[in-house]
Amino acid sequence: MDATGDSSGGGRAVVVGGGIAGLLAARVLAERRVEVRVLDRDDLGSGQDEEPRRGVPQGRHIHALLPRGRQILEELFPGLTGQLIDAGAPSGDLLGDARLHLSGHRFARADAELMTLSVSRPHLESCLRRRVRELPNVSFAPAGDVLGLVTTPTGTQVTGVRVLRRADGSAEEVVEASLVIDAMGRGSRTPTWLRQLGYAQPPEERIEADLGYATRHYRLASDVLDGDWGTLQGPTPERPRGGVLARIEGDRWIVTLFGLVGDHPATTPGGFEAFADSLTFPDIGQAIRSGEALDDPVAFRFPASVRRRYERLRRFPDGLLPIGDAVCSLNPIYGQGMTVAALQALALREQVRRDRPPEPRRWLRRVTRIVEAPWDMVVGGDLAHPEVDGPRTMKVRLLGAYIARLHAAAAKDPRLACAFARVMALVDPPISLLRPGIAGPVLLGSGRRAPRRGPRPGLTSRSGDDPPRLASRGEVRR
Ligand SMILES: Cc1cc2nc3c(=O)[nH]c(=O)nc-3n(C[C@H](O)[C@H](O)[C@H](O)COP(=O)(O)OP(=O)(O)OC[C@H]3O[C@@H](n4cnc5c(N)ncnc54)[C@H](O)[C@@H]3O)c2cc1C
């Protein structure tokens, strides 16, 4: 029997953390639960606030929504893509309307059929929150810190959480629930709370890439980047720095510069622009030189990717499911976190339809499978830098060498560029890069050149081997 008197497991669910993973969890739980209550340190009550908030300091920095993530958000919130575009979010193909530079190579341009939206994290989160708030059985509690779990006397079943509201004179209170979702993000307290309840803490895997970010917003000329919506430069072992320039809602441009292994961007305006000028490709430095800076650079340190292996614990309490960054926090330069949270939301929807109440062990195994490929991509990418410690297994070394060759070949062969972009977008599985049609040209080093064609009316002229766009700018494919 749960707090709402419902023994079927369909009673109240509490979601701790109203970030992306928490909002998506609330959305799918609302299909099956009588009541869903979202608790967060920040006041998420009004939903009108589009400013960065204290609970998600990473929200000031670029938050690329990968195409697979966009597809899932559209499935969970029909019409969201159009809503964001109507509110000014640029859209376009990931490869056909933006520039991708990986391993020191500029990818051939092609339509990869990867419809992408470029929005700031606060704007996206605010739109999602508004949609979640429209669900009749979901509510947002006033700002409060969740301090711990409440369990049955044996500690085997979680029955709620202890909360202290962020208001003067508040006293600790208990919010009862038959299901608690830990969506507290990277700083989740669940490992400590489990230890306090007599459980083991989950083993942790860490890849210490010592990443530093700095971000600034600009107003730029409309023809900057020849009309592309963005450009991304990944790091190389020789030059472990990179950056992203992307147009976002409000006709602003966000510039995030980053460096691995301690090679962090400066946060003085002059130092920031000098760092942009030092990148291998000149797009970002050139674009911002003549632009109007709208704010000062803001920094963020990300010491390590962290994966908590809850699925390896012998005992785990019923009624508790961790999700999102609480389980696995990935190096953000790969832009995967929100999409991985969205994939987990789909899995949660499926599990709550099947299991009543959801069985934690099945959930944790499911999450492990979802996280596996993104984690491998981060491990492979980060371990390409000799300064980063980690197990350089034969698989890691072979795949690293293969991906470097693929990136080189993708500079000439649009088919290879598309294949890689689709894996990076989490639309296709990594194994698809080993198909004979892809592996053949990569291993033989015979990238196919993109056809040279003159500009067609309505298409921006491009230099070099750029093929004309296959989709018109701003066209929405849903
Ligand atoms: C610098 C940086 C850049 C990133 N860029 C990208 C990107 O380009 N693309 C991408 O997809 N992902 C990116 N990510 C990852 C992305 O932010 C997360 O993966 C994604 O938001 C899912 O996180 P989450 O919802 O699990 O946690 P979060 O978004 O961190 O939310 C956790 C929530 O829990 C609340 N909370 C925590 N503890 C408590 C408590 N005790 N009581 C009450 N509330 C609590 C917090 O206030 C917060 O609202 C980036 C991350 C960083 C650090």
Within the CATH hierarchy, at the fold level, what is the topology of the domain at 12-62 and 126-206 and 305-373? Answer: FAD/NAD(P)-binding domain
The largest pleated sheet is described as:
8 strands, mixed
User: What's the total count of β strands?
Assistant: 21
Distinct helical segment count: 12
Structural class category: alpha+beta
By CATH, the superfamily of the domain at 12-62 and 126-206 and 305-373 comes out as: FAD/NAD(P)-binding domain
Q: What percentage of amino acids are in beta strands?
A: 15-25%
Gross morphology is globular
Low-pLDDT windows of residues: 1-9, 450-478
Radius of gyration: 23 Å
Write a short abstract of this structure:
The protein is 29% helix and 21% strand.
Overview features:
478 residues; alpha+beta; FAD/NAD(P)-binding domain; D-Amino Acid Oxidase, Chain A, domain 2; eight-stranded mixed sheet; five-stranded parallel sheet; 12 helices; 29% helix; disordered N terminus; disordered C terminus; binds flavin-adenine dinucleotide
